[in-house]
Amino acid sequence: MIFVLQIKSKKLKNNNSILKEFLDNAFNLKSHLMGFFSMKESDLDEFLADAKMNLANSHPGDVLSDVSDFYSQIVGDRHVADLAAWHITSKDYIADTLKLQQSFSRDLVLDFGGGIGTHALANAMSSTVEKVFFVDINETNRNFVEYRANELGVEKKLAFCETIKDTQISKFDTVVCLDVLEHLADPASQIEIFNEIMNPNSIALFNWYFYKGENNEYPFHIDDTQIVESFFKTLQSNFLEVFHPILITTRAYKKIR
Asked: Is 130 left (phi over 0), alpha (psi -120 to 50) or beta?
């Protein structure tokens, strides 16, 4: 028992060491990509080079009847590639989101639409977090993050779920939803769900980008005026913003009631 406790303690890190590890190597992201996809290092650059364009080109456009189908059935490995390229080339920005997360994350954490797992893994390394529930409708994403958690030795602090209902948790102390809301057909409804599963003292971290891009490079983003307006009305009626001094797009919120 003593041995097990000692091993567990080695996986928990202070905030500075977590940030340093991310800035050094994005939590060994390149190594994890090669291991998970059985890929040679010489093929990795090609896998990442045109990731954003490949993901955008895979979108079927207006014929897509259900937005979730794009991420659950169509994207395949391309979503991992796009997210990995973004996390590698934008480490300073993402490190700031991790710094913000460290300020608020505690106890039971929901990471909704967690992608390649950067924020979920960082929370799992934190001593203030009891358990992270990683929710993503994309099976490849879930499997990849589970692989990464095992490689990093934090697998016991993570649960992997397709939906929030699958977590079997009624209330969360922290909700993390980054770079997700603009992908949903009805982001206002998702805000209402978050409100229902948060405790009175819970904190949620949200950001959004309701823009398809100057040259339609983000065809999978929602930009409908009525949908966006409904989102902001719902957000403002359910949550109060909590100030933080970090100059990033991510914002912190607590419940109004």
From this structure: alpha
Taking the domains of the chain in order of start, what are their residue ranges? Answer: 14-255
| Residue 66: predicted pLDDT | 61
Average pLDDT over residues 223-233: 98
CB-count burial class (<10 Å; 0-12, 13-18, 19+) for 200: exposed
What DSSP line would sit under 186-207, residue for residue?
Answer: -HHHHHHHHHHTEEEEEEEEE-
**pLDDT tens per residue, range 189-208:** 999 999 999 999 999 999 99
pLDDT of residue 3: 34
Report the C-alpha gap between 19 and 4 in whole angstroms: 26
Q: Is CATH 3.30.70.360 what the domain over 14-255 is classified as, yes or no?
A: no
How far is it, in rounded angstroms, from Cα 22 to Cα 27? 5
Q: What is the pLDDT of residues 6-36, one digit of tens each?
A: 334 345 789 999 999 999 999 999 999 999 9
